[in-house]
Amino acid sequence: MSNWKSHNSGFMNNIILVPFEKTGKFALYTVDELGSIAIYMWESLISIPEYFINFENLIDQIIFIGMDSFYVVGLTGLFTGMVLSLQAYYAAKIVGVTYMIGPTVALSMVRELGPVLTALMITARCGSSMASEIGTMKVTEQIDALEVMAVDPYYFLSVPRILAAMAMLPVMAVLCSLIGIIGGYVVYVYFLGLNHVTYIEKIYQYIKLSDIYNGLLKSVFFGAILAVISTFKGFQTTGGAKGVGRFTTQAVVLSSVYILFADYLLTSILF
Amino acid sequence: MIILEGLSKSFNGVKVLDNLNIEFGDKQITVVIGRSGGGKSVMLKHIIGLMKPDSGKVLIGGIDINALKKKELNEIRKKFGMVFQDGALLDSLTVFENTAFPLRRHLKLSEKEIKDRVFSVLEDVGLKGQDKKMPSEISGGMRKRVGVARALILNPEIMLFDEPTTGLDPVMSDVINNLIISMHNKFKFTGIIISHDISGAFKTGDIIAMLYDGRIIESGAPEEFRNSANPVVKQFITGSMEGPILI
Questions:
Q1: Collapsing DSSP states into helix, strand and coil, what is residue A96?
Q2: Does B179 touch chain A (CB under 8 A)?
Q3: Closest Cβ opposite residue B77 in set A50, A137, A150
Q4: Which of A3, A174, B101, B191 has the maximum number of C-beta atoms within 10 A of its C-beta?
């Protein structure tokens, strides 16, 4: 009987305590991780005035994040714009406001989908590459070699990636939005057979310059988030090839989650 | 002079270095031998400031490097060259660019001067004509020699070698040992080699020290070391299973 009682109280304790213990551990891990990211960002930033910007690496990264991502970002924008136009048509037809499809597509692309989808696609394409490249360098002692050669690895590897991402994300988001609006136009005019003048006129009527600015501002933040987290995870990598895979996955997942979280925060502040 | 004073370091409660004391003489090659996983690489990483000790000091020319700021530490590091176990070459750069890397970062030289110095040091390490190859296209022994070339390119006062012959066949090990000796004769650096290659240690070392249980248990000139009465040293030199070293 006493055995049953002690077994039962242990079971009850587990049911009550385990969720608290897990929540506590998760909270501590999150605080620790955010603190480490903040310290890492600070160390990267203070290396800029100390050594100036490594232009050679910066240009390489601008090409990698910008020009090389053109097709994937362009295709994402194109299909998103086309789908938006089509979906908006089904809804607008019911209430007889098909002339609002242009502004719907344009505002969605410029304020929201352009910046966010661009950031997510570049996280998948370039963030994963940043994390795995730096991670491989870490596990093969190349980072140690840089330090031994008196080269600050943050200055050499992180700063060009962070600056390039912050500079190129807005450019790519503009392209994504523009191609999305064109995709929407193609569906509106050629597939749905609606008036092309209405599509363009209504966009001019409803879209404000502040929509574009705020979308661009969001992209700058998203660029910083994806590059800081991806390079940070690269520097954290341990455990050989398996570790590189694990930390690269963490980089992509964390960057994507933080981008979506930041999107909500920025939208509630900016718009 | 490099002095490690009362150096201790633990990982997850396991003491790897335990009040370690050793002095490395100027212009000498000191070989530190010890078991795999015995803390040799950890000791070397403390000397170059890649790790910070739990307690104790690392004095380079009388300066405690752990008290330095990042920029000051980097100035001290310019006096060092280090050859890593697997070369640690930057795998996106060619042999030439790897060797030229420290020159481009720290000196303002013309392209011709860089080429002259790189080709000269590559010839010194027996890699003439290999400058255009990528690290993935050359053998382990060649990668180590590129590592030596890169470490020597700034004429460092101190050279650190992390197991320079591990993973190489006996002939290539001898090539690397001879290369260390000839480079030492030419550049007159203070050398610290960590290794468990006994024959290589006796060949290259002016002083041999043994790290065991986180401390230096024996140190001396090769002959003195060979005749040590310490049973741990005797067992390690002979490579016997019988003795005080716990397996």
A1: coil
A2: no
A3: A150
A4: B191
pLDDT value at residue A52: 62
Q: Which tens digits make up the pLDDT trace of A89-106?
A: 999 999 999 999 999 999
**Which positions of chain B have pLDDT values less than 50?**
none
In terms of domains, do A236 and A266 share one?
yes
Per-window interface: A 34-73 vs B, CB < 8 A: 50
Q: Pick from A36, A52, A68: which residue ends a domain? A: A52
Say which of A136, A141, A150 has its CB closest to residue B78. Answer: A150
Best of A47, A139, A147 to disrupt the B interface (most B CBs within 10 Å) is A147
Domain that holds residue A26: 1-52
Interface confidence (ipTM) of the complex? 0.89
Q: Is A142 on the interface with B (CB under 8 A)?
A: yes
- The residue of chain B nearest to residue A142, with distances taken between CA atoms, is B88
Q: Do B84 and A147 touch (CB under 8 A)?
A: no
Question: Looking at the structure, do residues A89 and A48 belong to the same domain, yes or no?
Answer: no
A148 with B50: Cβ contact below 8 A: yes
What's the rounded Cα separation, in Å, for the pair A199 and A204? 9
Q: Does A152 touch chain B (CB under 8 A)?
A: yes
A176 and A91 share one domain: yes
Q: Both A18 and A138 in a single domain? A: no
Instruction: Please report residues of B whose CB lies closer than 8 A to that of A140.
Output: 86, 88, 91
pLDDT digits (tens, 9 = 90+) for B77-86: 999 999 998 8
- Shared domain check, A110 and A37: no
- For chain B, which residues make up each domain, given as ranges? 89-155
Q: What is the pLDDT of residue B208?
A: 96
**Pair (A141, A227) in one structural domain:** yes
Please report residues of B whose CB lies closer than 8 A to that of A145: 82, 84, 88-90
Give A67's contacts (C-beta < 8 A, 6+ positions apart).
none
Residues A165 and A32 occupy one common structural domain: no
Average pLDDT for runs of 10 along chain A of length 271: 59 77 88 87 74 77 94 97 96 92 96 96 97 96 94 89 95 97 96 94 93 95 96 95 96 96 93 74
Query: How many structural domains are present in chain A?
Result: 2
Are B91 and A140 a contacting pair at CB < 8 A? yes
Same domain, A37 and A92: no
CB proximity under 8 Å: B 6-45 to A: 45
